[in-house]
């Protein structure tokens, strides 16, 4: 169920490999034990029009959506693991950020084909 959304600038990185970043964030999140690897869904959104503090500086922002119920400590563990991975893969990117969001388990609905 957890969703990882990677939003990033199209420039401002020494190198940006979306597939490698998705794999690394998958492994980092699953490695915490807070989420299961088989449940993770990851996608990217690239922005060619953006400003960071009024400047055209590179950015990468990750939002992790989880069904509510994780402890604050588990969320911090996930956030720090994701940020550490981003720093390793995007060392020249000016702005790196992570946000962990709770989803309402009553309102969240999905459908999977078997």
Total number of distinct structural domains = 1
Strand percentage lies at 25-35%
Low-pLDDT residue intervals, each spanning 5 or more residues: none
* Quaternary class: single chain
- Large-scale geometry: globular
- Please write the CATH class name: Alpha Beta
**How many individual helices?**
2
CATH architecture: 2-Layer Sandwich
Structure description:
A four-stranded mixed beta sheet has the order 2-1-3-4, with helices on one face. It has a single domain (3-103), classed as Macrophage Migration Inhibitory Factor, CATH 3.30.429. It contains two helices and four strands, in the order βαββαβ. It is 28% helix and 28% strand. The protein is globular. It has helices at residues 18-31, 72-89, and strands spanning 3-9, 41-47, 59-67, 95-103. The protein is of the alpha/beta class and 114 residues long.
Short synopsis of the structure:
Helix content is 28%, strand content 28%. It has 114 residues and is α/β, with parallel strands linked by helices.
Keywords:
single chain; 2 helices; 4 strands; 28% strand
Describe how the helices and strands are arranged.
Elements: E1 3-9, H1 18-31, E2 41-47, E3 59-67, H2 72-89, E4 95-103
Parallel strand pairs: 1-2, 3-4
Antiparallel strand pairs: 1-3
Helix pairs in contact: 1-2
């Amino acid at each position: 169920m957890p969703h990882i959304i990677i939003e990033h600038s199209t420039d401002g990185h020494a190198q940006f490999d979306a597939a490698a970043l998705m794999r690394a964030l998958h492994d980092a999140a699953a490695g915490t034990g807070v989420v299961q690897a088989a449940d993770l869904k990851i996608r990217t959104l690239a922005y060619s029009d953006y400003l960071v503090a009024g400047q055209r500086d590179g950015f990468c922002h990750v939002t992790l959506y989880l069904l509510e119920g994780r402890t604050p400590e588990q969320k911090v563990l996930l956030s720090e693991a994701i940020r550490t991975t981003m720093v390793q893969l995007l060392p020249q990117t000016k702005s790196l950020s992570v946000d962990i969001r709770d989803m309402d388990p009553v309102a969240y609905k999905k459908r999977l084909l078997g």
